[in-house]
Design a protein that fits this description.
Elements lengths: L2 H11 L13 H10 L3 E6 L6 H7 L3 E7 L2 H11 L6 E5 L12 E7 L8 H14 E12 L6 E2 L2 E2 L5 H8 L3 E12 L5 E11 L1
């Protein structure tokens, strides 16, 4: 089973509100996006069937994009968001293989994709794509399990990050603006600790 099949199987067998990472109101994410004052050209990495874009559409954001490795997730999301009169571009792709238009986006948002990249070569590819995708002075929001979080996510190994570790990964081209911890309550009642990191691309 390849990576796309693995994630398709997850989305085919659960409703989006049953998934461990589901949030009906992603408050910290929305607060961080508001902090940037960006209203358009936003890329949601690993958006799957999350509710972030629903909330952004309702709040009047436009020119949104979402990328996920799962075709099943994107299909469900497209159907759910069809009611909004918002320009949304959908990509089914492994983030480390994404082909982009240079420096198109004002904001790059990633909740729980980066921590799946356990191999350094994949993280290097990710950062190269990020730099080619984001406009200078644009913003990056990355959320990962923090040092107190689980060692696995959806049956897969992950890397946990604190402020020091994520800054080392991002390098000197990105300035950390804000770091926030979150105790996320899953639909099953478990608690997962996330770290949210807001950067600006220098």
């Amino acid at each position: 089973m390849n990576k796309q099949q693995y994630w398709d199987n997850i989305y085919d067998n659960k409703n989006h509100n049953e998934l461990s990472w589901h949030q009906s109101m992603p408050k910290i994410s929305l607060d961080l996006i508001k902090k940037t004052k960006i209203k358009n050209h936003i890329m949601d990495i690993g958006g799957g069937a999350s509710s972030l874009l629903d909330n952004l559409c309702e709040a009047g954001y436009d020119n949104l994009s979402v990328l996920d490795i799962s075709q099943s997730a994107i299909k469900k999301l497209r159907l759910r968001l069809a009611k909004f009169n918002t320009k949304i571009t959908y990509y089914v792709c492994d983030i480390t293989k994404f082909k982009v238009k240079n420096n198109e986006y004002n904001l790059w948002y990633d909740r729980a994709v980066f921590h799946f990249l356990i191999h350094q070569q994949d993280r290097k590819k990710y950062l190269t794509i990020l730099k080619n995708t984001l406009k200078k002075k644009g913003f990056v929001i990355i959320a990962t399990f923090n040092k107190n979080g689980p060692n696995m996510c959806s049956g897969l190994e992950i890397r946990k990050y604190d402020q020091t570790k994520i800054c080392q990964e991002m390098g000197d081209d990105f300035k950390l603006i804000t770091a926030i911890d979150e105790n996320h309550l899953t639909p099953s009642g478990a608690t997962q600790t996330f770290g949210y990191f807001l950067f600006q691309y220098l």
